[in-house]
């Protein structure tokens, strides 16, 4: 009888241990699955963080449309291509999307004229402030010389402004920092960069006086479809202080 009791007690003990072992294994498996799921979620979150936003180009984006590099004396502005001006003439190189001329430029800018002006001041550019509505048609804009390049995802290089915008006369675009901040704020045209000397645009092309494009038909400006990407593509326009 004592032997039977000992054997029964032994079997019960083994059964309890077995059940406990199975339970522990199940708990371990559940914990492992939870850990794997957590790790996978973290990995996916990290990938999302690492992946650039679709609108991010060369350090600028819709969230941060203007970047200032004081040491290199460069200002970069997020913009997008307006394919309308691959074939139509315009006097606007770059205009803020919310301005009254927001749909009239080769490159639609997401930085404001005020922020652009302040950024140019920050890199040491000096505004000419020599233009007004009365003298505009006879005056070439003055101020610091500003170079401009354009790039985008897959471009492989920075293109000079003269490669992406065509002058029908074959002359070079030469930008100067005209200034005009107060007039720009009053007029609300949104103009950052004009293709003839302008009393409103923050910078403009000193090669021609105001009215050369729309009033006197001296020149036609169009975007270069052989170089620029398709309509709506985000690009980064970098302006560099050259003197």
UniProtKB/TrEMBL annotation:
Keywords: Signal. Residues 179-208 form the 4Fe-4S ferredoxin-type domain. The keyword Transcription does not apply. InterPro entries: 4Fe4S_Fe-S-bd, YdjY-like. It comes from the Bacteria. Residues 41-55 have a biased composition (Basic and acidic residues). Residues 27-58 are annotated as: Disordered. Residues 1-25 form the signal peptide. PROSITE patterns: 4FE4S_FER_2, PROKAR_LIPOPROTEIN. NCBIfam families: ydjY_domain (NF040466). This is 4Fe-4S ferredoxin-type domain-containing protein.
């Amino acid at each position: 009888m004592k032997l039977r009791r000992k054997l029964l007690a032994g079997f019960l003990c083994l059964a309890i241990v077995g059940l406990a072992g199975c339970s522990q294994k199940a708990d371990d498996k559940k914990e492992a699955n939870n850990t794997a799921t957590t790790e996978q979620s973290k990995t996916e979150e990290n990938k999302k963080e690492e992946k650039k936003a679709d609108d991010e180009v060369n350090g600028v984006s819709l969230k941060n449309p203007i970047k200032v590099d004081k040491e290199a004396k460069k200002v970069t502005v997020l913009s997008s291509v307006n394919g309308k001006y691959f074939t139509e003439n315009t006097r606007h190189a770059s205009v803020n999307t919310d301005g009254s001329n927001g749909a009239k430029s080769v490159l639609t800018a997401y930085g404001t004229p005020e922020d652009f002006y302040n950024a140019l001041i920050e890199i040491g550019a000096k505004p000419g402030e020599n233009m007004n509505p009365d003298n505009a048609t006879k005056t070439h804009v003055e101020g610091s010389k500003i170079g401009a390049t354009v790039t985008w995802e897959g471009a492989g290089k920075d293109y000079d402004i003269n490669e992406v915008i065509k002058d029908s006369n074959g002359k070079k675009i030469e930008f100067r920092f005209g200034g005009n901040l107060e007039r720009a704020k009053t007029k609300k045209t949104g103009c950052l960069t004009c293709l003839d000397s302008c009393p409103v645009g923050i910078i403009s092309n000193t090669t021609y006086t105001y009215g050369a494009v729309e009033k006197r038909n001296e020149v036609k400006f169009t975007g270069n479809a052989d170089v620029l990407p398709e309509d709506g593509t985000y690009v980064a326009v970098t302006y560099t202080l050259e003197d």
